[in-house]
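User: Let's play a game. I give you a shape written as tokens, and you guess the letters that built it. Ready? Here's round one.
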């Protein structure tokens, strides 16, 4: 059944479209120049537009500007916003970048193309079981608590190798990447470098790191996905 929440009930706003299209073009240009600055292919870096809490008009403008990869941090909000969109947008790509509760796992596995926040053994087991049952397996990233902050989710850096090995060995998961959010109050580069080192020694290809304020440095440190919210859409409501 077609869901009735898409296209969103918003009028096309030409000014908003021009503004978001220009901002997106600027971000893509900065991504390309950051990549070239360190001898990397600009196409090796994907822009995730973090659409959490944004109003439908801004998201519609980003879609009209050609953006297809979106990041959400709450499963329920993502379902409300994106459910029913795939018929009209087959190339839409949705990434979960916020914590995943076990009771939302089935819905998350059905909706998302990538889950960036695998952060505990129980979740690894549930993901593996769900994929066996449904045949659907999103890209899986392990979240690392790179600054070892008590308030943040993620595997502590010192336990990362063992956790990744268990995900692969015990649960048969393909770990496509690592994700981290460095501490807000310190320079992010040492944390980006540390995340890259964990990925390198574990043979992991993708690094989701860098947000509105620091995606250029993250690319210099090896990011393959950057997560930009307010820098693209404007301040969250
Ligand atoms: C909100 C959020 C972002 C985007 O942050 P901005 O500073 O608005 O670009 C990126 N990553 C995660 C995990 C987030 O929750």
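Assistant: Ready! My guess for every position:
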């Amino acid at each position: 059944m077609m869901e009735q929440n898409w296209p969103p009930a918003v009028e096309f706003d030409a000014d908003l479209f021009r503004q978001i299209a220009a901002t997106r073009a600027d971000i893509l240009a900065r991504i390309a120049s950051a990549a070239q600055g360190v001898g990397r292919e600009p196409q090796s870096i994907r822009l995730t537009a973090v659409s959490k809490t944004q109003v439908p008009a801004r998201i519609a403008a980003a879609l009209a500007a050609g953006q297809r990869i979106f990041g959400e941090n709450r499963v329920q909000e993502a379902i409300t916003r994106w459910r029913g969109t795939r018929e009209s947008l087959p190339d839409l790509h949705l990434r979960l970048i916020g914590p995943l509760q076990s009771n939302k796992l089935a819905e998350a596995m059905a909706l998302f193309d990538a889950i960036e926040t695998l952060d505990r053994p129980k979740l690894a087991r549930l993901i593996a079981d769900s994929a066996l049952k449904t045949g659907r397996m999103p890209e899986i990233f392990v979240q690392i608590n790179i600054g070892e902050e008590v308030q943040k989710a993620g595997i502590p850096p010192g336990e990362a190798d063992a956790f990744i090995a268990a995900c692969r060995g015990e649960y048969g998961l393909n770990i496509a990447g690592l994700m981290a959010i460095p501490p807000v109050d310190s320079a992010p580069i040492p944390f980006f470098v540390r995340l890259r080192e964990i990925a390198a020694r574990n043979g992991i290809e993708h690094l989701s790191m860098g947000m509105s304020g620091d995606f250029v440095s993250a690319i210099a440190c090896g990011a393959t996905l950057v997560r930009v919210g307010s820098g693209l859409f404007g301040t969250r409501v």
